[in-house]
Amino acid sequence: MADDLLGDRSRTSFEYCIIGSGAGGGSAAHVLTAAGHSVLVLEAGPNPFPGLDDPAPLQPPLHSNDELKYAVRGWIAQDPFLEPRTFRSDPTANASLEKDVNVLPQAVGGAFQHADCKTPRFNAVDFALKSSMEALLARPENAGLTVPGFGADAASANFADWPFGYDDLEPFYVEAEQVYGVQGLAGDNVYESRRSRPYPMPPGVPMYIAELLKEGAVRTTLPGVGALHPHTYPAAITSRYYGAAPSERPPCVDCGLCSGFGCPNNAKGSPAVTTLRRALLTGRCQLRYNAHATKLLNDGHHVIGVQYVDATGEVHVAVADRYILAASPIESARLCLNSPPPGGGVLGNSSDHVGQNLMFHFQTNVNGFMAQRVHGQRGRAVTHGFSDFRGVEPGGQAIRVLTDGAGNKVVAMGGICEFSASQGLPISEDGNTYALSPLAAIVKARFGQKLKNALRDLPLGNHLLGLTMQAEDAPQSTNRVELDSRYMDVFGQPVPRITYANHAYEKNARRFYIPYLKQVVANTGATHVFVTPVNPLLVGPPSSRHVMGTLRMGDDAMRSVVNPTGRFWDVDNLYACDGSVFPTSSGHNPTLTIFAVALKIAHGLAGTPPGIV
Amino acid sequence: MPKLKLPRVARTAEPLPPELRRLADEPPSFTVLLGRREFLKAAGVLAAALAVPFTGVRRAYARARGGFFTRPERATLEALVDRVIPPDRDPGARALGVAVYIERLLTAFDGAGTPPIFAGGPFSNRNPFPDERRGRRSRRRPPNAFKQFIPLTRLQTLRWRAEIFGSAAVAGAGFNDAALGPWVGLRQIYRDGLAKVDQVAVAMKGRPFARLARGDRDAVLGALDRGLFPADRRRGTTFLDVVIQHTLEGSFAAPEYGGNHRGRGWRLVRIEGDNQPLGYSIFSTDKNDYNERPTNPMSTPNPDELRHGQLRPHPISADGLSIEDAILTLTGPFENT
């Protein structure tokens, strides 16, 4: 048996087995071990955090400022050669192998360590979007107003209210912000919903691109709303010494290689250095890494064990009283699909909803070029943004009715907009775009002096800035994870097939906001303002790293996979506590809400109130 | 910035001249590739002609000195990458160590030590620690952890051995070969690709690539990029795509991987490279807030583009501007539809 272990090395029987050590699994391990329960965590990837279970002060990890290691060779990314995925946008077409269908890190601490750790909350209205929209459309003054996916078009999408409201989740948002260490400024974002506690840390140093885009934003007007409201972007990144020994983390130094990179000085609130470390130090947690779960052994209503392959290639079965899926939505759903009950079929699928309602967020990028160098490589990738295009009223309690150019009433649920730039990545961004993308055919800069001159200027790396809108995508039953048995992963399992196409709900919102997104970038002083992905490329795998849905949580066993406590309706000892349980995706980065939902589910299991630990 | 997804355009490359078209889809065998007249012409170039039978012996010598490439292959490769990023007032790919970088990748599993695939962390010794009290740089520097490569897991070993040797040569790596065909290893890609470069150079200009004048090399490279290398079925890339990708990697990856000699690649593109543990914002416990670095500010313009407080950007080159123009050309027609 492989010796890739952290935490309590001797324990062999466990109350809980958690599959995945990321945002959901780390949060759950922390709450359950703090409440006295024994927990086994299975993590498919390697451990970038040597000494994570050592009670001496937290050591620096193996992470580094290294473009080749992360952006090119994918040190901790799920590898598309070892674990391929297929994709199609047309549910009637054949899927094809794609190198990057939502490739996320697979390592102790999960995908959040690779993110730039932006952590806005969802709005209050997001938890009751369906009923709020229906009520809004029923008002007499809104007669004639239509929203794709609602009203007469309701069957084209699968909108649902969450089984709990914002006020129910708010204490867990507070706990998540405290335990992961979030910087931000209360009141800075007029659209943020009620918060009962201020942010644990103030915002750090602003980026130059943010100072520029703030100017562009306040000079841009949304009709009927007025000038836009740029705000500091909440992020689970330290701006002060944070936490208590032995888990104290130093302030972020704004090294710049942030989005897509692990943090070399533990400033990012990765689950590894926060919740997992706490769980490991209780002595009640054992974490097996390089341990890839392949099957949930079950009798149809009860999980008996988790079959996994260890670092040496040996197959084992891990046994616990209860099992918690937290492998992120595609892999959590795939485990159910690969775990037929004795009579055949899919585990936990009496609703036929397993794998459905997959959501990624609908990213629209609007960029332009500044004459001066804007050094996006200095900073936390994103320090500011605005929320005016989410489509809600200030306070986030109600959907906003807008007016289009022709004077018609419109509802446009976009998303939070990040002020972004390149992090200075000459291999994977500039070089690849000039020499190896479709651009090369036009500029003839595949090699030679032209390529070198362009690299010396680094138009993307040094001059580009812009906006990324993280718009809500409608849940659809046809957007889903299934198995594609034409191809195998290295463990001999059929690969996931992802079917995903955008709904008019989000395409209409994109069309509505693009002119204003372009105005902001132009008002910043940028030239060559452009939109990506362009419409014809919307049929490919989404560029978003966000992923939600597939194991929907709900009140109705016929229309959801897990109940409001996170337990599978059909399986008495199986739970899900990652982004897979989200009924809708909101228009905000999802991880803080994954933390809060996982904390809520785990506190429910442990019978403890939020914030006790 | 998420990677730019750009629409494809129809390639408008000029067709190959007839004498080269034949080379496009043939296997890289010297006698098949060249007609009798061309062969006689080429036969005068002894080195190139003799390179074929002696390759096996030469590769044994290369292995003995810890390398992969034979001396003629290495010469061809260095000449080739040096036309991808040519020398001018700044170093070209050869001086940046790109060939060293590529050879180190291809021989990653030859030595007894940890394969140099993933450099260690957290810090190189290129930057000092911050002075935490005063919030400025200190004189202390960390040891260079980048030099301690990270041991590979079993699956990482399998994946990177397949990358270098091909899936058919690595036990357990061929799990999709029946459906997709073999994953061709980088060693074979380079072995075949470099041979073909010299064959085309001989056919076009009468000498192996490394012996050609700069202008002739560019002419050969241009021809090579017009369909002479088919895209690999499974990778979807041509030999030149691989060479260009590796030239970028060897020019701009951390120097511990063998290229980017003394960080001169980073200096060429005016980025700072790895900058931990100092970073750009230095926290001062004395003032309980951050200081920025005056020479490398985070929240304000670069000092070299400011004159008396006014922004004075350095002009961008015509080739840099053509990138910006082309992005607009590619994306412009699709907006607002």
Gross morphology of chain B: globular
Per DSSP E runs of 2 or more residues, the count of β-strands of chain A stands at: 25
- Give the tally of β-strands of chain B: 6
Main sheet strand line-up of chain B: 1-2
The proportion of residues forming helix of chain B, as a percent range, comes to 40-55%
Classification by helices and strands of chain A: alpha+beta
Distance between the termini of chain B: 24 Å
Number of helices of chain B: 14
Rg of chain A is: 23 Å
Spell the H/E element sequence of chain B: HHHHHHHEEHHHHHHEEEEH
Describe the global form of chain A. globular
Tell me the strand percentage band of chain A. Answer: 15-25%
Could you describe the 3D structure shown?
The complex is a heterodimer of chains A (613) and B (337). Chain A has 613 residues and is an alpha+beta fold. Helices cover 23% and strands 19% of the residues of chain A. In chain A, strands 1-9-3-2-13-25 form a six-stranded mixed sheet. In chain A, α1 runs parallel beside α13 (591-606), α4 packs across α13 (591-606) and α5 (208-218) crosses α12 (504-523). The longest helix of chain A is centred in the last third of the chain and has 20 residues, at 504-523. With 337 residues, chain B is mainly alpha-helical. In chain B, 45% of the residues lie in helices and 5% in strands. Chain B has 14 helices and six strands. Chain B has helices at residues 18-24, 30-33, 36-43, 46-64, 71-84, 93-96, 98-106, 154-165, 177-180, 186-205, 214-228, 239-252, 264-269, 318-331; strands at residues 130-131, 136-137, 281-284, 289-292, 306-307, 310-311. In chain B, the strands form three sheets. Chain B has a two-stranded antiparallel sheet. A two-stranded antiparallel ribbon of chain B has the order 3-4. In chain B, strands 5-6 form a two-stranded antiparallel ribbon. In chain B, β5 and β6 form a beta hairpin. The two termini of chain B are 24 Å apart. Residues 27-52 of chain B have low confidence and may be disordered. Chains A and B meet through α2, α5, β15, α8 and α9 of A and α8, α11, α12, α13 and β3 of B.
